[in-house]
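Notes continue from the previous slide.

Worked example: a multi-chain complex. Inputs as given:
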Amino acid sequence: MKPYVLIAEDEKAVSELLLYNLRKEDYDVGVAMDGEETLMMIDERTPDLLLLDWMLPKVSGIEICRRVRTGGANPNLPIIMLTARGEESDRIRGLDTGADDYVTKPFSTTELMARVRAVLRRIRPGLKEDRITVGDIEIDRVAHRVTRQSDDIHLGPTEFRLLDYFMQHPGRVFSREQLLDTVWGSDVYVEARTVDVHVGRLRKALRNAGGDDPIRTVRSAGYALRED
Amino acid sequence: MKPYVLIAEDEKAVSELLLYNLRKEDYDVGVAMDGEETLMMIDERTPDLLLLDWMLPKVSGIEICRRVRTGGANPNLPIIMLTARGEESDRIRGLDTGADDYVTKPFSTTELMARVRAVLRRIRPGLKEDRITVGDIEIDRVAHRVTRQSDDIHLGPTEFRLLDYFMQHPGRVFSREQLLDTVWGSDVYVEARTVDVHVGRLRKALRNAGGDDPIRTVRSAGYALRED
DNA sequence: GGAGCCTGCGACGGTTATGTGACAAATCGG
DNA sequence: CCGATTTGTCACATAACCGTCGCAGGCTCC
């Protein structure tokens, strides 16, 4: 079962960013816009992780944190606190109150995702690695590096995300449309053929590091990364 | 018993596309054209899955979702929401309201079907596998791969679909017309004899991987895949 | 055994899907 | 603000695939 992450955040821009990225990493996600809603949603379905904004309308983040830790049905619910810069002193109280981790806004999305993975892996080991190896190719999402036979490979951002996605599901065939939805994002509109070009670039980069083409073309279906 | 999927969608073009594809995958399918009808049809016969358009006349998708979740006889009814691009913020409310998954229009049919399978498999495990084995032949629809005695077999798209269809109903005899309808699609017009040629090609490919011909010709009736 | 139907299969022209170099616009990083 | 990088799209060549035909051989039924 997919881990369920609850976002408690009143700024829509932030919550959407989080929602988008968490979904992309294949979590179940819920969003609460204020403190009351957060408490309700926690009762409805216990999340595996709570991303908790410090400043929430109605019931503040710190209050929620305290209640979860002292009162609720699940006092060990992992919590990552989102604080704004300058609330440094609050941060201390936050950790006091029992948050597992905190991140200051504005935050780097990849960093936050890494922390989310880290926390969840503590709860559910073997969940999703920061480094994946398939065959002789290795990707390190934290360091943003790709290696093949210990050669460093430089990839553009899109090629990186593309390879990342392939490596999360080795062997599986994805249509151009699926790739556009997940790697590019479901809200941008680009030609399906664009995928071909980027796959081509990815191939060239991987070929340069030796070995043969690890990407399989499945005619009239899409592309897949060869397993092993 | 076949799973029953209810489509709630007012755009005829979309609902027919869904209807066609869901039928092809062997589900029972119902179509509701507006919100009221949807609620009625849910009452009449509880679906195993609801494909719910966001914008429905009379009663909106979100309202239906909420009513199902809070009120109805079956609050756990799986729901896949269909949203148009640009309704991104609605999507959040959708997940809040309790949809299990969402897909943005225009969507890739194969991807939607994959999600449908995924959701249904959660409800009814062992429903329709991504891999099927018949005798010494194995087909993996996700990886788009065919194996016989651990030899990889390369098939063209049509041969792949043909084998896929045979393997879903091993032993059963299909007429050329049936095969054209299901494997080619009911809207294309090709000679019935074309099936022979593709069966021939499929046979050759399977023979190349060793073993004898697993496809049985039934004179003046059609073809079938040998079970066992 | 033979006429008439049915099937297997190689060959062939036409169509479609894919790989790739080029290029202009967009974006990034100072 | 400029140079460097990255990105999306196009055009074109090529390879893969498709549908049809024709013929040889098999099967059926009388």
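Summary box: The interface with chain A takes residues 85-86, 88-89, 92, 95-96, 104, 107-108, 110-111, 142-145, 156-157 of chain B (CB under 8 Å). The two ends of chain B are 23 Å apart (CA to CA).
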